[in-house]
Amino acid sequence: MVSAQTKPEIRVSPASVQSGASLVVAGTGFTPDRTVMSHLLRPDGSEYNPLRIRINERGEFSHRIDTTMLDIGTFELWVEDEASGVVSNRVRFTVTPAIPPVRLF
Predict the structure, then answer these.
(1) Of 13, 71, 77, 102, whose CB is crowded by the most CB atoms within 10 A?
(2) Residue 39 carries which DSSP code?
(3) Residue 37 and residue 51: Cα distance in Å, rounded?
(4) pLDDT in tens, 75-104
(5) Which percentage of the chain shows pLDDT scores above 90?
(6) Mean pLDDT in residue range 38-45
(7) Taking the model in full, what pTM does it have?
(8) Would you give the DSSP letter of residue 14?
(9) CB-count exposure of residue 22 (10 Å: 0-12, 13-18, 19+)
(10) Which residue ranges form the domains of the chain, and what is each CATH number?
(11) Burial class (CB in 10 A: 0-12, 13-18, 19+), 53
(12) Strands (E), the chain
C-alpha cells in the first residue's frame, strides 16, 4: 500500500466570506494519484455527505466551495487520505450575511 510522504495539510482562503461568494480549499501531502474524502461540518455540528476528491501526481488538490446554499455561521473542514487513512488538520471558515448594495438616491 502506498502512503502519504508527509502529514497532509489543508488551508482555506479566505477564512471569512459573504454568503454567495466562493472560497478555495487547497491540500498538500496526500498520497499522489489517489482519492481523499473531504468532510464538512455545518454550524449546527451536523455533517454534509463527504465529498471524494482526486489527488494529483504531486499529492495536492484544490477545490472551490460556492457558499450560496450554505448556512450563515462557522464551518469546520478536514480531509482523510483514503490510501493511508491519515487525516489532515482541521480548518474553519465563516459565512457571513450578504450585504445588500447601498442605494445612493
Answers:
(1) 77
(2) E
(3) 5
(4) 999 999 999 999 999 999 999 999 877 777
(5) 87
(6) 98
(7) 0.87
(8) S
(9) exposed
(10) 9-96 (2.60.40.1930)
(11) middle
(12) 9-13, 16-18, 22-28, 35-41, 51-54, 61-66, 73-81, 91-96
Answer yes or no: are the C-beta atoms of 2 and 31 closer than 8 Å. yes
Residue tagged 494519484 (cell numbers): 33
CA distances from 14 to 24, 36, 55, 70, 93 (A): 7, 22, 22, 15, 8
The candidate with the shortest Cα–Cα distance to 1, out of 64, 85, 66, is: 85
- pLDDT at site 6: 67
The candidate with the shortest Cα–Cα distance to 28, out of 65, 81, 66, is 81
Q: Are strands 61-66 and 22-28 parallel, antiparallel or unpaired?
A: antiparallel
